[in-house]
């Protein structure tokens, strides 16, 4: 079949704004591109979120033919993209040729039905969206005129209650629903082991979005730890858990070990998978065996980063629950030393990979835990967690 009408659209989304009160907050624009072809067989919409060296793609396949029980979508990359992970499809790549096959729960694709899946990958020199697809061997594209997909409105409606880009995620919280002075409803104060001077509160004077955020007054000394825990059960989120949050620290990460994100981990019998600092730099820590990422050698620490103080930063990370694979970004810059890629690298993830069982986070706790010295006053806002990538 000859494709006579195939349109590639590449645009940058308009700046989002959402209105909660009198404050309208502009979010960073998300670069997207879409390739679309309509045909007798199928329509594919391919939407990317691209950054230097990496990208994610959300792919929607609409079946214009007879119902399928088992589907396979194929395309060829025009750049040097390399798929590194996928969700809701099994994706394999040979050279530039990519094949995505259904997983068990989405094998049936009805006539006029659609299926969504996604992938993440890397690129070096070019990342053009693919322009031709085939569904079960039948090319998508053809004589039909493609209808451009609906693009997001440049301004979200005034009824939005949360940042639009995490709507539908398991956790999507801007804390604007917190009307009391301490966490309530979907956030609950917890000090799992002992309780001291640390406290969490709802702050109405410092916020990244709207007028409210979560404030943590974290003290030094283990028993001054305190957290606000989301009430959401994360046990079924995945296979990759994606997390995005805004964090504002007052004090630089100390030399001694501290934690500000703690996730009970079923793979550690409920002990915590932690994000915090040590030797002045961001790090992961596993409570059960105290493994750190990166390893705390000078070379390992140098592969991580201190955190800025006095301003909001965007912290993002992803945790694969099916293989030892984790990545971490600060303000959209990937932190090289906080990348578990499954192959032990000296000074980075060798110690981490001593355990082959990947994490299985079951809950999210935000707060402060010190194991000696080190205190901080910090804030969290626009916290999101789900099974799909969430941008800053
Ligand atoms: Ca807020």
Q: Would you write up a description of this structure?
A:
The protein has one helix spanning 298-302, and strands spanning 7-12, 17-19, 24-26, 31-37, 42-51, 54-63, 68-69, 72-76, 82-87, 90-94, 97-101, 108-109, 114-122, 133-135, 138-139, 171-173, 187-190, 199-203, 213-218, 226-230, 240-249, 258-264, 272-278, 281-286, 292-293, 312-320, 326-330, 333-334, 365-370, 376-386. The two termini are 41 Å apart. The chain is globular and about 65 Å long. It has 1 helix and 30 strands. The strands form 6 sheets. Strands 16, 18, 19, 21, 26, 27, 28 and 30 form an 8-stranded antiparallel β-sheet that branches. The protein is mainly β and 392 residues long. Calcium ion binds at residues 174-176, 207, 209-210, 212-213, 381.
